[in-house]
């Protein structure tokens, strides 16, 4: 992308030398290319957040603290998984699923408190996110527009894991993810 931008700058300079009336159009093209480059950098960064470089536990601790700071909803972490070693794909999937789960709590649950519990069970790592919010009622049409839940489920199933949700109106919600170690 950088080489493309450099070539475009040279081309725009040549064009505006011979056709100065195109200066505005070439500037617009360069601005759009800059926007595309920034978007691409953002996508690449978001594929695997840098916070994961410190390890899953540190990333989860950080995210829970940040969530509490930003939204004023207590997010308590209980980590009983020791220094479990996971494939990178599993680490990223767990972290992304946690982000989506907490985002859903913030947007929909009207919760005051969230508990995130991470432990190991036989050959699995298990992460449970429990909130004290309004809960949700499941019916046949409830999940048609719940892309967040669908995305989480698909991400976990693709890695051989399971995602389960327990909820009832006015009784909060519990989301449990289990991934093989």
Automatic annotation (TrEMBL):
Lineage in the entry?
Bacteria, Pseudomonadati, Pseudomonadota, Betaproteobacteria, Burkholderiales
Name the InterPro entries on file: HATPase_C_sf, HATPase_dom, His_kinase_dom, Sensor_HK_TwoCompSys, Sig_transdc_His_kin-like_C
Q: What is its EC number?
A: 2.7.13.3
The processes (GO biological process) annotated in the record are:
phosphorelay signal transduction system
Superkingdom per UniProt:
Bacteria
* SUPFAM superfamilies reported in the protein's UniProt record: ATPase domain of HSP90 chaperone/DNA topoisomerase II/histidine kinase
Keywords associated with the record: Kinase, Transferase, Two-component regulatory system
State the top-level EC class: transferase
| Entry protein name | histidine kinase
């Amino acid at each position: 992308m950088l080489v493309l931008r450099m070539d475009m700058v040279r081309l725009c300079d040549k064009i505006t030398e011979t056709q100065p009336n195109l200066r505005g159009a070439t500037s617009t093209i360069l601005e759009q290319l800059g926007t595309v480059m920034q978007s691409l950098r953002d996508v690449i960064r978001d594929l695997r957040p840098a916070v994961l470089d410190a390890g899953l536990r540190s990333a989860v601790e950080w995210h829970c603290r940040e969530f509490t700071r930003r939204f004023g909803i207590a997010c308590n972490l209980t980590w009983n998984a020791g220094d479990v070693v996971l494939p990178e794909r599993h680490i990223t999937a767990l972290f992304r699923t946690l982000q989506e789960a907490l985002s859903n709590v913030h947007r929909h649950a009207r919760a005051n408190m969230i508990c995130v519990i991470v432990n190991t069970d036989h050959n699995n790592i298990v992460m449970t996110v429990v909130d004290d919010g309004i809960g949700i009622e499941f019916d046949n049409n409830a999940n048609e527009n719940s892309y967040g839940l669908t995305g989480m489920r698909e991400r976990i199933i693709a890695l051989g894991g399971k995602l389960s949700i327990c909820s009832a109106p006015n009784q909060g919600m519990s989301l449990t993810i289990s991934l093989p170690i």
